[in-house]
Fold these 4 entries.
Entry 1:
Amino acid sequence: MIPQDNVSDKSWKAQWQTFLRQEVESLIQTVWERIPPSVRESVVELAEAETRVQTLSTRISQGVVTRWAAAHAADDAIPCCPTCGQSMRRVASDRPRAIIGFFGDYRLARAYYACTQGHGGNAPADRRWGLGPDHVSPKRGALAVRFAVEAPFDQASALLQAALGVTVDDETLRRIAHRVGGVAEAEEQAAIAAVAAGHGPDPKAASESPSALVVAVDGVMAQMTPKQWREGKIGVCLPLINDSSAPADGAGTESLLQPVGTPDYCIGFESRPEFWHRGYTHALQAGLDARSCRLVALLGDGAAPE
């Protein structure tokens, strides 16, 4: 055990890291010594060795996460029903829940409560741990969304299986991605409403205020259902800054515009006038109203969107 009394946060972290490193090294040595020599010698390919080690490390990680959950499953107080506000009644102290986690499948036990007025029940630990209605851990869900953004749902599911060896079915992947997208869209609509009310959105973090801003718009047809296609209106904002460090053909220096930060993208399926509110909000977030921004370039192909 590591004594935590009278030590700074930095010192505590250093001691914790040292403790973990020593424990892991000891565990690796113990596990290696317990593997029969005949088994060690039977593995002759690196790929097979990696697969077996990955399986072992996954099982260890699953056990650590499960033990962490057991140590943090206790509730500080009896929860109240979110519908009627009455104190809920504990109906189980260790109701299990199967979760598809970052390290594989978990079976997490936590207390479960029911409303005495018949308004359903819940496990407060689920909320503290960041678990949603899907049986997917937060880290696994975040990774699943990244894959789902980059590829169709069926391909994303296959990529997840190949990368981490854990399966998330296509439908679960779709629900998670849509739920995260719904939260992002709600935040965007709130920012658009704030601009419409005269309250500009907070500029997104950047190392420097832009000297210029490029705003590009375009459209793409997206298949919403097997028989329905709609135009998605796309906008991208790229802030630029002056860079006077580049040589100008041996004649001193000249001011060049260089990108700062990353491009900010948006897409909407609303009408053209409504989309301009979305694009304008993103432009403000990219620094359109900054006093340093002296040039704005709007790029488009001239087509009339729907």
Entry 2:
Amino acid sequence: MTTDRLRLLFTITLSETGGATNNVRDLIRSFYQDHDVSLVVGEDGPLADTVRALGVTVHVLPALQRRINPVQDLKAIAEFREVLRKERPDVVHAHSTKAGLVARVAARMEGIPSVYTAHGWVFAPGPPPLLRTVVWAMELIACRLGTTVACVSRFDQRYARSRIGLSAKRMEWIPYGIDDRPLPPTRPENDRPIIFMPARFQQQKNQPLLLEAAAKVADRDFEIWLAGQGPDMDASRELTERLGLSSRVRFMGDRDDVPELLEQVDIFVLFSRYEGLPISIMEAMRAGLPVLANSVCGVPEEVTHGTTGLLSESENIDESAAILAELLDDPEKRRAMGEAGREKFLAEYTRDVMARSFLSLYRRLAQPRSHESRPAHGSQPNVETDTTASRTSTRSSKRNRRHLLNRA
């Protein structure tokens, strides 16, 4: 680039709170002061409000919807192209399936490099078969229209190569990163160990496995805190009663103080059936907690078995009970694993680490466009621009499009 300042356009379908949306928020927070940043979303909401408060331009495209609708999707592509012509970004960074498709198509048509962060692949095992098939077909096309796919885990990289044939040179491995939160001076001394699982009550998260495992080690003294809401919450309450654990299990509902709760408990559990790269595990490591989890998808990349936590190799109640008992019986092991987990978090999963990786990627992608002369962000082109220069700029833009086409 001729200057250090980049023009970055981020996009995601929904403007809610949650893993992928929070990742977009954190990236914008990392770059908006030193670069020209804008955001495209399909709706107003918490993300849009937070970003506007930073002084970042937000474009809301109502046609950008989560559900598949060919008419609306084509309209969204056309509207997205209009935004690209206005913002003239160096790089488009897309998140979520629908925004990822629309943005990559529009960016390709405008000759702009694009990055798509795959927050786990929807066509991986877990989601309904029909949805997996539809998204797989979409990604076969979209991944070849975009410039680069950023995978949050090595597992996702391998899966993309095997299922959609995406070459290694078209992918980057950039894990999530979150803000550090210094540990309190002292952790409370609980009368009995507290096991904590913050997760939505749904089939994927598998709270029943924790409850069944806990029932097998009920001769030990412990308490379970379950934070979250969801369609399977009533079933988990009923299971708790049947297992005779009602006096030990606390259903806490949705909480906005999970970081504080993590500083009050002793063991973190996430027995999900499938995951991408769970941010909740990073938060637990940041809080200095040992982690118990199923060894699925990207989880083994976060949790070093025997060092920062313990992994169950299968969805097996007896095995899950065994690793739970191991930590309940050994306070010193809990402490050592928690300390090792925090060290790994600081080395690999902070927002600064993630931001440095993405900035390096953005600069590499923007480099082929560095010779293109463009007005500063937010300014209007000079109406008296020489026609020869205008023709030169047009030819330059065409060369850029051919460059991107050749990379596909």
Entry 3:
Amino acid sequence: MVGYLTNSRSLLHFKAAARTRAAGVFTACLCLGAAFLFTPAVSYFPRPVLAGLLVFLGLSMLREWVWDAFFKLPLLEYTLIGAILLLMVLQGLIAGVAFGLLVASVFFVYSYSRTSCIRHNFASSTHFSNRERPLEQIALLKERGTKARTLVLQGYLFFGTSNAVVETCRELIETEKLEFLLLDFRMVQGLDASAVLSFNKLEQICRSNGVALCLCGLRPELEAVLRQTQFLPRKGVKVFADTDRGLEYIEDGLLEVIGGMMLATPANPADAQAAIGASAILAEMDLRRILAEQFTPAALNVLIGYCETLKLKAGTPLFKRGDPGDALYFIERGRLSVLLRLDDGQTKRLRTFGAGTVVGEMALYSKQPRSADVVADDSCRVRKLSAENLARLEREHPEVAIQFHTYVVKLLSSRLAAANEEIRGLL
């Protein structure tokens, strides 16, 4: 074909099965010979043959797109092809191509708007943050977690898809009486101004229903769009760097956590002020109150006698990767994070342990070196139970050791059950 950049990819060569580079070389040699060596002979070449080639190509294209397409394409798309062909005959090639592009764009927008941009939709009763919590708090999260929802969004957000998100959130707020709503943008490719208008509407719905709206996973370009349209910053909208931080904030809100400790809601409203005043005392809760439901009083006294008290300042490592797994630690106050050092020198938070939890038990039982660093986020107080003291406890007080091992089994089974629920919620 005249003007085509690659002969081997033209329709005529494709029909003739000449699809290699040799076809292009042969065509170039033939044209060179006709131009300089066999110019008089070209005039004797039968013109009907050349016209027949064009007619053949045209009829083959009509057969492919008019007859064969009828049996392959949906009726709507086949009707579009017929309309484009008719418009080309009546108005010309440019008009037909322009009409086809316009209608195809409309069909794309319509089809894409029907595709769900919500990748995952899960409640805080089944999907938890990486912050490790006591068993009693986990039980309460499973009970109250239905009041919080996380929606993982995907694709490109515009008026068609964002409106579906708003309607889904409205239904969840009305049917489940939500208190927290977290939107995860880490899989969103982009958004436009029309999507921001929908999020303005969602923020109004959340504000009128007393729902805390949270956003996370915003890439710089997405956050820039939200700031340019003045959706951010906004008093009623919380923004977090990742899903884990957002889920932790929601869990603290569900548990009414103050200073890392859980406060129960007073049954009598008159006692609310007294409960707030007691928060400082609760923040100093000791190991006895943490483990009271897991051990008998006598066994708890014995267990504490075998533990060593350690105090850590913020930023102090409890242990580092590669250290021997010769002890486990009860966290009595403060928070510690499990940090994994990456190849580029940065660190990634794998888990955070708060008061009332246990850290380091896996390496103690498996006799393997520590697999990550554990560092204090703030001032902490922990109780250390070394492998040597645990062995002595098993010899001198086997009944207390049985209660201790039972507690660890409950803890590990709770973590495994939570992981299974998270995986099930993502399927």
Entry 4:
Amino acid sequence: MSAVPPHVECARRLALLEGDDFEVAITGLLANNHQDFQSIPAAPQGDGGLDGLAENFTVGYCCYGIENIDTLAPKAVAKKTLDKFKADLMRILEFNPKKPKKLIPHPNTTLSKVFPAKTKLKHIYLVVNSFKSNTVIGPLNTWFAAIKPNSPCTYMEPACTITIEGPHEITNRLTVTPSYQARLESSLLSKMLNQPTAPTTAPSDLSGFDDKMNVLASVSNPVRVQALRNNFHQQWLSQLGMLEELNNNHPQAHKRIFATIEAIREEVIVKFLSATPQNLADRLMVFETDLADRLHTEIPLPKQDAQRFARRVTAQLVGECDIDWR
């Protein structure tokens, strides 16, 4: 399999993000590419319709991470895209976005505090997490050209233009650095860890796994061991499902993460060589804690997600590890 270009895999990851997560990822990419990139905080009275500025305040960016996008039909995605960017542009044009058909003047007090004197926008990029339909291009540009002459154009040149971009368009245009890829990879893992996915093919032979649980039950509380067995099995399946999805859709991320897990596997096998049923639970707890710390620093992952990932990896090792503590 040929290597996937960094910008292609980056686009795939961006397309999985929604809401604020998408906006944060896009502004991070812009900051990596524009030394003078200026993000615009929403406090205290909104962002004025813009999420960021670059090229000496002449290029603006509006971001929109449509939420629950997998549940929406293409027409619904297109409508949400049009409605959101029309509202943003109306604010920049200084019209009341709540009355889009009446063009009621509405001074943008936020942007008056953002733009330096004698600077105006020449171009605005409208970046959305799903741009698969060409039906939004004509209507939005036609609307923008018709409404612009009625604006005082305080913050944009009369000849200002707009471009709609999705994840693939913006990553094609900008440079994707390794450090940005790593941060985005962390966001991708956090999202996947919070959305358990079952593997296409679950392990068919659980005899070795069940034998280990039976040994534990013989020296411990059988009810507690059964609960432990069920939890391990579910976490094991979630881990396999996540790795399968990574391999299918994000092969470079899968390669890096799998390499880390394999290195850890070798370490844990050595630690398990002297494990017994009586001390296994303690060994697993120590291993899971150490692994969470390592994932937190090496991938890196937020601590809560690192703990969740460590629990899955531990379950996978219990299910697949060839060390027999009987």
